[in-house]
Design a protein that fits this description.
Elements lengths: L6 E3 L12 E3 L10 H12 L19 H9 L12 H17 L9 E5 L2 H22 L8 E5 L4 H9 L3 E5 L21 E7 L11 H15 L5 E4 L7 H4 L12 E7 L11 E5 L11 E5 L2 E5 L9 H37 L4 E3 L8 E6 L9 H10 L6 E3 L8 E6 L6 H21 L14
Parallel strand pairs: 4-5, 4-6, 6-7, 7-8
Antiparallel strand pairs: 1-2, 3-9, 8-9, 10-11, 12-13, 13-15, 14-15
Helix pairs in contact: 2-8, 3-8, 8-10, 9-10
This protein binds pyridoxal-5'-phosphate (PLP).
The site of pyridoxal-5'-phosphate (PLP) has 15 residues, from α4.
């Protein structure tokens, strides 16, 4: 009997005379096949993936223009770590993080240091590692123990911070959010800080809801803590999304290197940096904040090039794309793109709020992301999970999930608006939400709630 779970039957139209008629799925293929046959198999298989334009769950760029595609295809082969072989890619990487240091108001961007990464997760981990090493070096110099470092952050952190603490033996101290404190805002921060605290992570654009945490307010709280007990706690800003929105949309918001306590900032080039996955960036205000002991030297044009990264080899093409995007859009272009994305998000938020059954958690006033809850109603038998399922049938991915610790009974649904979701598509989505709400109201069926683990931030 054919075992279709372990082999692919080749369509006879595609397999050429003399070629194999089946290919294994889970064991290493013994024979070769023609490139066009292999292409057809992979091409057909990937057609079953979702449509990225309708995926309102992801923050990651799904569209760049034709010149970016051309550059990408010219640079597939470049390995970012081969700085000796690709010195121009290395130079473009340096231009990019210097530009970011400038955009984020580093006091002297020529004194800053930074690097590209595969995304925000790696960028956050490098930021966190620098905090840990600085804390260790300071403690050792003072003859104190370096046991039990901890990192303070909101309970609504992205999973990369949980991983970071787990992988690098750091105690994660989560400050819970509540209906009164929808983001970590400095309230009771002193209860979480002690002499083993390596830093505080402040998120510009919390993944669950898109809200900004108030960097300047948290810094003032840390100033007060320093005054009362002498602990000088640095901040890493996780600006995965917001660090590429705030400079253009909220230029007067003080969140970046203008806040003295901010020692490093990370972002995803592949989110609102408008580049295909995977590229991220991390920048330290001043080279002195990145301990020398973390930097490895690789050969560069007969000289030495410092690197700080978790991976060794990785694609260099995204660096070219980021440099292209900075040159092509400039401040003005980024401002236009981000503003139109925000306009769509705010329009969607208002329309969803006016439908009746929903209450907004936030209204996209920070990044173009917002979440909503269901109002209490004894007659209603459906949940946001049901609405998510109904929308999925039409191709839309609009996740519903529980909020973190202390608010886990609360379910929200979230939309991430990216470049490419215009007003027309937004109106199609609104029509579909209205239709599905009416269907659910009429049928009143309760579909089983998926487990809490269904959506990963
Ligand atoms: C606040 C925050 N930090 C970190 C990350 C991880 O980013 P990446 O997917 O680029 O690794 C995300 C992703 O959504 C995020 O929202």
């Amino acid at each position: 009997m054919n075992d279709y779970r372990n082999r692919i039957e080749l369509n006879p139209i595609f397999s050429r005379p003399g070629e194999v008629e089946t290919a294994p799925l889970n064991t290493f293929p013994k024979q070769s096949m023609l490139p066009e046959t292999a292409y057809q198999i992979v091409h057909d298989d990937s057609m079953l993936d979702g449509n990225s334009r309708l995926n309102l769950a992801t923050f990651v760029s799904t569209w760049m223009d034709g010149y970016a595609d051309k550059l990408y295809s010219e640079a597939y082969d470049k390995n970012a770590i081969d700085k000796d072989e690709y010195p121009r890619t290395a130079a473009m990487e340096n231009h990019c993080w210097h530009m970011l240091a400038d955009l984020w108001n580093a006091p002297d961007s020529t004194k800053s240091i930074g690097c590209s990464t595969t995304g925000s997760s790696e960028a956050c981990m490098l930021g966190g590692l620098a905090l840990k090493r600085r804390w260790q070096e300071k403690r050792r110099a003072a003859g104190k123990s370096t046991d039990k470092p901890n990192l303070v952050m909101t309970s609504a952190v992205q999973v990369c911070w949980e991983k970071f603490c787990d992988y690098f033996d750091i105690e994660a101290r989560y400050v819970p959010i509540s209906m009164e404190h929808k983001v970590m805002d400095g309230y009771k921060l002193e209860d979480y800080i002690d002499e083993h605290t390596i830093g505080v992570v402040v998120i510009m654009g919390v993944t669950y809801t898109g809200m900004y945490e108030p960097v300047a307010k948290i810094a003032r709280k840390l100033d007060a803590i320093q005054k009362s007990c002498g602990l000088d706690i640095p901040i890493h800003v996780d600006g995965a999304s917001g660090a590429m929105i705030a400079p253009f949309i909220q230029p007067n918001l003080i969140w970046d290197f203008r806040v003295d306590r901010v020692s490093s900032i990370s972002t995803s080039g592949h989110k609102y940096g408008l580049v295909y996955p995977g590229i991220g960036w991390v920048v330290w205000r001043d080279a002195s904040l990145l301990p020398e002991s973390l930097i490895f030297k690789v050969s560069y044009l007969g000289g030495e090039m410092p690197t700080f990264a978790l991976n060794f080899s990785r694609p260099g093409a995204q660096i070219l794309l980021q440099y292209w995007a900075f040159l092509r859009y400039g401040f003005e272009g980024y401002q236009n793109v981000q503003q139109s994305t925000i306009d769509v998000a705010r329009y969607l938020a208002q329309e969803i709020a006016s439908m009746g059954p929903f209450e907004l958690w936030n209204d996209a006033s920070d990044i173009p992301v917002f979440a909503w809850m269901l109002k209490d109603s004894p007659d209603r038998l459906w949940t946001l999970y049901d609405l998510s399922d109904r929308l999925r049938m039409k191709g839309w991915q609009v996740p519903a999930y529980p909020m973190p610790t202390d608010l886990t009974d609360l379910t929200v649904q979230r939309i991430v608006v990216r470049n490419g979701l215009g007003m027309n598509l937004a109106n199609d989505l609104l029509d579909d939400i209205r239709t599905e709400v009416a269907w659910l109201d009429k049928n009143h069926t309760v579909v089983t709630k998926p487990s809490n683990a269904a959506f990963h931030h």
